[in-house]
Amino acid sequence: MKQQLLFLGILLVSISSFSQSLNDSFVPSGDVQFKVFWNYHTDLSENATKTSAFELQRAYLGYQYAFSNAITAKVTIDVGDNSGGSAYTAYLKTAQLDWKVAPSVKLSMGLIGMKQFNDQEKFWGYRYVFKSFQDKNGYGSSADLGVNAEFNLSKNLKANFLIANGEGYKKLQDEDGKQKVGASLIFTPVKGLTTKIYADSQPSIDSDAITTISLFAGYRAANWRFGAEYNKLNNGKKYSSAAQDHDLDGLSFYSTYQINNKVEIFGRFDQLSSNTLPGESEAWNLSKDGNQIIGGVQYLPVKGVSFSLNYQGFSFDNDLLNNKSLVFLNAEFKL
Description:
Blueprint: H1 2-18, E1 29-43, E2 52-66, E3 71-80, E4 89-102, E5 105-113, H2 118-124, H3 133-136, E6 143-152, E7 157-164, E8 180-187, E9 193-202, E10 210-220, E11 224-234, E12 236-238, E13 241-242, E14 248-258, E15 263-274, E16 290-299, E17 305-316, E18 324-334
Antiparallel strand pairs: 1-2, 1-18, 2-3, 3-4, 4-5, 5-6, 6-7, 7-8, 8-9, 9-10, 10-11, 11-14, 12-13, 14-15, 15-16, 16-17, 17-18
């Protein structure tokens, strides 16, 4: 608690020390934003019951407004399915205020986009096709209630420090009121190379603290890019579900080759594994452990519209489960 109060105190001092005056010539303005994920897929898996389907997986509707050169805000509604069975349910995804209190310091507060895997997701580049590794496997939430401070420490080094509820944007703070504290460092030592280390911790009344650590490196050249990441979750079945000594390890590798301005090919390999608890003979997450393979081509007919024909396969570590094999036609359109 003392650390969290100290962090918030530093933020207040930063605001009072570095806050910039408004530009009299600035004209406040805003714009509407939207993003939609659609797909058609065929399931080639053995004993598949639902062999093909059209899906509208997600629709994001939002508005962004600039009060000044230093202060902006955005609100985003996320429309998608939920565990209750509804086909489309609207959630408040972000309600975020950004304040650039100094040239090298930016504060974000409210229901904010998290920094845990945002860089990896951007580098992967095909969110409409498949989630990034941590998002897919429950290592963290893409948005949460909290405060983030971003510091540009030098031309090549950036740091983030955050305090958040730790429950994600679909849940309220739990009864124990224990916040997640996290930090990241992003280092670009040479042109084209990005490295990142992220760590967080959230105390729990049910186990030792849930902790996450991730390492990422990505390299961009003229017409290709390659990314690799290692992720570890300790004492949790997922980021919001504490479980003593339940750990997850994950690797993800992905690459893209750009043929021209409209066409590129991509591939990805993920590996998820869990530990075996004392007294048990199998890993606790055996029903989900395994290897994910994705490969396909993307076509960009116009700005804001993307199509991808791709293959997605998953081989389970559990030999009793049938492996997955699907072919997708994915589309994204956004403004």
